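Late entry, written up from scratch paper. The run itself happened at the end of the previous shift, but nothing got recorded in the book at the time, so transcribing now.
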Amino acid sequence: MSRIARESRCVLFDWGDTLMRDFPDFTGPMAAWPHVEALPNVKEVLIELQPQWTLVLATNSVDSDETGIWEALNRVGLDSRLDKVFCFRTIGHSKPSPEFFDYIVKDLRMDRHRLVMVGDGFEKDVLGANRSGIRGIWLNESSAEVRVGKMHKTIFGFRSLPDILASFNIESVTYDGRECGQ
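Output as recorded:
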């Protein structure tokens, strides 16, 4: 049986202020916060991308471990939309370090050119990924600033993510019963 096409390309998402709102008045693990919310259009876009992309979380969060992150995602209905969570507590490194991204590439067994990092932090998320050979998309919801380069693009809202991902022309590849990277 053939492996589904979405296994061959991947979107890495930052967590706070990319998929879910990071409320500055709340501290500690997000799963324990009195209120959590997904950012606008996130769930709908993840549903749209899910059939063709592997979708993972890649966060620097130090307050939440993987279990806590999954619990917070569950509270807003995003847990079933993501395939995997990578966090500082598991990796032992944080963005923008190359070790953070190297760990993810090795774990996913995908070529770097098949991954795209999406985040609200230009330096940590986008340039960190770029320095590791991974394309990036800057989610800039706070200004009209556009940053575009060979390895990165800018979006101003989640709704435009599918079109920007398509513009990278990362083709979907189906592997015949083999694990990706073999």
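Strands lie at 10-13, 54-59, 84-87, 115-119, 135-139, 152-155.
(Scratch paper discarded after transcription.)
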